Amino acid sequence: MSAKNCLVLGAGGFIGGHLVTRLKKMGHWVYGADIKYHEFDNCCADEFTIADLSDPVQCNAVFNRPVIFDEVYQLAADMGGAQYIFTGVNDSNVMTNSVGINLNVLKCCVKYHVKKIFYSSSACIYPLYNQLEPNHPICEENSAYPANPDSEYGWEKLFSERLYFAYMRNFGLSVRVARFHNIFGPYGTWSGGREKAPAAISRKISNIDENGTIEIFGDGQQTRSFLYIDECIDGIVKLMVSDFTGPVNIGSEEMVSINTLVEYIANIAHKTVHIKHINGPLGVRGRNSHNKLIMEKLGWCPSKPLMEGLKITYEWIDKQNRNH
Predict the structure, then answer these.
(1) Which fold has domain 5-181+228-250?
(2) Torsions phi, psi of 108, nearest 5?
(3) Among 31, 119, 126, 153, which one carries the catalytic annotation?
(4) Nearest-5° angle of CA 141, CA 143, CA 146?
(5) Is the pTM of this model over 0.90?
(6) What pLDDT digit, counting tens, does each position of 185-198 carry?
(7) Could you state, in order of their start, the residue ranges of all structural domains in the chain?
(8) Can 153 be counted among the known catalytic residues?
């Protein structure tokens, strides 16, 4: 494989940071940009710049380079866990910032003749009415319409998908779109309100003694699937070298309830954990990746058992928590 010039937007984030590492291991030259430096890891990009991509001037400066980028990976977004996305108080920021970023990025891709761009969408685009039953959610790619996401974050992601495909049709931009399903792993946010369920539960269990109580939003019967970060990066790389534009799910089909997720992490921590169910933001009742399309188009789908990724993640968060 010949070396490429790659631009990773959102390189200071969880998935973006792991992606930079993988692209460097593949022998590519990588330029990273984000509004912040990575909180938990030193970015190994060849160059890294701080930029607010929702500002057209700053976004243009990122793209205005001596080289033409062979590949752009657009992961920059205003996002977080349930406490950030589903409370409603951040809706205007989520939509304004993320749509602004995508508009600026696409205009720059056309202006600077970018060859191919990857856009990270989300399983949050799927309709609420197909995710009311925790044990039988419908998340096939073609089920996105009639549209009815459960959050403004989901609406923004769905609109942005359409935006990327419109630029593909009108400007000949080569686009790849994936819908991520709850990506987790080390070097991700684990406190502060923007963390996802595996990280939040790991932190809570790390904080208790061998026999203690943690609080969980809702009755804990709501279901999700969680994908370990390495397999997420595998999926991105495979999609980019394929001829398939997407959108396609990148997620695990190993669905568990939140109560079961607590049980798994408690077993890893060798602790007896009691759950106190409290009111809080929940999102949909059930969500699970549907992987028929990715297997058909890429000849691959995620297969790493959830427990393996949770063990690595818990041990990392436990270490962070003790050193915090």
Answers:
(1) Rossmann fold (3.40.50)
(2) -70, -35
(3) 153
(4) 135
(5) yes
(6) 999 988 887 788 99
(7) 5-181+228-250, 184-225+254-287+304-323
(8) yes
